[in-house]
Task: inverse folding
């Protein structure tokens, strides 16, 4: 009756309530010769304003059977639709079940965590696929080693609903990159962060043997980073990296 009164249509659409979900996505690659592989999953559950803030690979929420099942599901789906290129299939996950959200047909911001644990250069593979080459490796040749986490550093006011901040960067400092620390940024002191584009300043990506060591390393990298000139989420990221619920995937 309410739908009929509001919209002139009494049809109802029911959606399953997922009250404690994780956001899990699977990296997939498909060449022009029919070969399809996946590179494991990423967990992107820590978000604000419906945008991802911390991403890790692999997900602490999945067990080995679930990981194998979702990987096979994605490969079968991509094969069935005839997709070619690099892409990501995204799901909500809860209690052993996966619920499809969407497929992103592109390289995503959080692709470095997948590169860290697989050793695969996704951008290079995308160029190879586009030029007609076969995938450099088959599924059984791809392995995921260790754990990786990416923190997105934003110019935003965490005390005011995470609204973007604008201004000129007076100072910018991040640790020197090494095999276990990757710093992706496109700005330097003197650059202006405006209001017309995404306010992301940098991506800090770390890799280690397991999740515990990885969160510790991320905490050290965040503690050695500083930005002056705009408000940022650096302090919040540092606090999150030390929070036990975050480390345990209980968020």
Result:
């Amino acid at each position: 009756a309410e739908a009929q009164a509001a919209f002139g249509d009494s049809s109802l659409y029911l959606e399953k309530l997922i009250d404690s979900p994780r956001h899990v996505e699977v990296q997939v690659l498909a060449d022009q010769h029919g070969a399809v592989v996946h590179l494991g999953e990423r967990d992107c559950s820590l978000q604000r304003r419906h945008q991802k803030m911390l991403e890790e690979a692999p997900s602490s929420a999945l067990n080995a059977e679930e990981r194998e099942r979702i990987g096979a599901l994605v490969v079968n789906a991509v094969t069935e639709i005839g997709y070619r290129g690099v892409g990501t299939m995204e799901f909500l996950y809860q209690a052993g079940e996966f619920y499809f959200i969407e497929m992103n047909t592109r390289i995503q911001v959080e692709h470095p965590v997948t590169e860290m644990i697989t050793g695969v250069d996704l951008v290079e593979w995308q160029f190879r696929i586009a030029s007609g080459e076969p995938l450099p490796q088959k599924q059984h040749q791809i392995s995921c080693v260790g754990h990786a986490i990416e923190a997105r550093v934003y110019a935003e006011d965490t005390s005011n609903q995470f609204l973007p901040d604008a201004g000129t960067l007076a100072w910018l400092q991040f640790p020197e990159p090494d095999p276990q620390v990757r710093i992706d940024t496109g700005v330097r002191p003197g650059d202006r962060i405006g209001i017309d584009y995404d306010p992301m300043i940098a991506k800090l990506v770390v890799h280690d043997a397991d999740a515990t060591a990885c969160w510790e390393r991320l905490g050290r990298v965040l503690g050695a980073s500083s930005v002056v000139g705009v408000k940022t989420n650096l302090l919040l990221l540092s606090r999150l990296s030390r929070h036990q619920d975050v480390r345990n995937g209980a968020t």
